[in-house]
Amino acid sequence: MRSPVPACLAILAGVMAFGLLLTGLLAGAVGADRRRDDNERVSAAAARVAQEVQHRMGAEVSSLQALRNEMMLDWPIDVASFHRRLDLHTAESLFDSVAAIEFSRAVPEEALEQFVGRRAVDPSRASLGYPALDLRLDDADLHFLIDYVYPVEGNEAAYGLDLLLVPGRSEVTVAARDTGLPSVTAPLDLVQGGRAVIVDVPVYDTESVPTTLEARRDAFVGVAVVVIRIEDLLGPALDGEPDVLVTVTDVTGTDVTGTGVTSSEDRIVVADAVSDPALDGSGHEVEIAVADRVWVVRTMLAPGARASGTSPSAVWGVGTLVTLVVALAAAMMERSRRRTRAAALEVAEATREIQTILAAFPDMHFRVAGDGTLLGFHQGGNGPGLLTEADIGRPIADLLPTQVLERAMTAHVAARMSSEPVSFEPPMVVAGEPRTFHVRLSRLDHDEVAVSVRDISELADARRELSQLNAELEQRIVERTVELERTNAELEQFAYLASHDLQEPLRHVSMFVERLQTRYGDVLDERGQQYLGFVTDGTTRMRAMIQALLEYSRIGRSALDIEPVDVDDLVADVVASMGTTVAEAGARIECRTGLVVATDAALLRRVVQNLVSNAIRYGHPDRPPVVTITANRVGATWTCTVADNGIGIDDRFAERAFDMFERLGSTRTDSTGIGLAICRRCVELLGGVIDVERGVETGTRITFSLQEPQA
Predict the structure, then answer these.
(1) What is the pLDDT of residues 513-552, one digit of tens each?
(2) Beta-sheet strands, E only, within 550-649
């Protein structure tokens, strides 16, 4: 019989051996995972920094292009306009990393003297703080002179500098002129301290960038220049990875695939000691294109930094649990595999549904990466062109028509920077027929942009027709308004002249009637005296009507004087001025509105005085006149009512109450019938309406409402 002790030892040894074997395998796997995690961490840091650098640099270049486009639309642009635009862009938090923004004008040799003279006498530059222009000339027949600079403080010495005299600048400026695209210099040192790159964006005297090289050179007038501080541009991008060393290097024109070494003069920023030869071989590099230059972002784990993940020594402490951990890992992997498969089926089903929905619409849809690469598309039925699966992965710049390329690229950059959709409507020619499309770009996750294209040619045609009709209608309104104003002026002039010219013959009639009365009054019989009285009354009434007509024609000749007016005080002044009339009639005027309104006091006084005077003049013979004035306000509108207990106005005559010389059947000879017409004229000048209230049993109620002017 075999001894149980050796058997137990054998089992124990087998279990220990199996456990140690699994633990060793797992510890080795953990070590490999730690190295892989560290490598992924460094790689992710490089990708993040590269994306941030490219995004920030692209934002500054895009802002400069937007400034350039504004200058071209309003060309020629002066100094004040340049600084006003920069103040606006600064208020919108654009150009955050910029040390200076300039405009450099292309000046031929023969125009240098004129350029200097113009700046010497330009009064708009007197308060800008620019020093006197001091040119360093050479034999070049074309100069790029810094004409405007922003901000002025700290950059005064830049004004008047000829860019062709700065090493390396002429190539960048000429490249921008010929391509029509931004061009960037190599890193250089700033006089104010620190390092910078300079971006040139060409400016032409056309509304858009010319499409041919010859046209660009002919229309070229200078470059919009931005000096970008490297520390401000890259500082935020280099933060957030305390255990990772980062270096950003300008490698334009160098062989980065060979030795990977560039000269120290080309290095933009050395954030950490990545250049130490002892650390070479463990970093990660990402190459990015910034305008027309190439930069390399290199990252590596800092020496002495604690590696991520679980320590292999901890794995040995759980050797007895290795089998359970492996089984659990296998179960989780199987579960993950099943979930991944189910998710893939759901995605495929959702994709089919989306394709089915999109197929019902004629629009084109695209998905574009942040770098401008086409990631996918849905071909609509009426798009501007046809794509194939082979076009996926190509830059959209190679697929777009030249007539919309610049606007599309600008909109692509703007959409990546904005949380709101960006859209534009370019006209194009498709199959020989002019068409108009609505292009809409919306930012997606992972720095992607969704683009939709819809044919709106019919809508654009309708808009143009509507715009033309509106323009024609506005022109007709202007013409009718001018004609109406001229007619009103002529009528007012006619009324004034007619009433004024009637005064002279009327004075002659009155004079000779008085002489006739004086000299031959005793000779005339009773009937002659009666006829003479009729003539006298007629001339008196006609004089009153002429005076009323003159008063009416003068209303509105002067501008309105809007001021706060206390209605109760104004009514009290009117009653005081009519003291004799009120006392003789035994009238009572009641007014307690407590209202202060913004209006023209003189016009309002005329309205109140005429209404109170009419109420007393047309009082009832059996009772003394009582006039009640009330007012109320609702928002900016206020209404005033003047009510009396007089003889009233028949509803049949209410429509004619405000006509000139209309007395509505009254036989009174002391009335001209123009008082209510003056009231209506004054109220209309104040922008209100006046009316007689119908259905009043006793007396008359006249209401007028006014709209207070906006502050």
Answers:
(1) 778 778 777 777 888 778 777 777 777 777 767 776 667 7
(2) 562-566, 588-591, 596-600, 626-634, 637-644
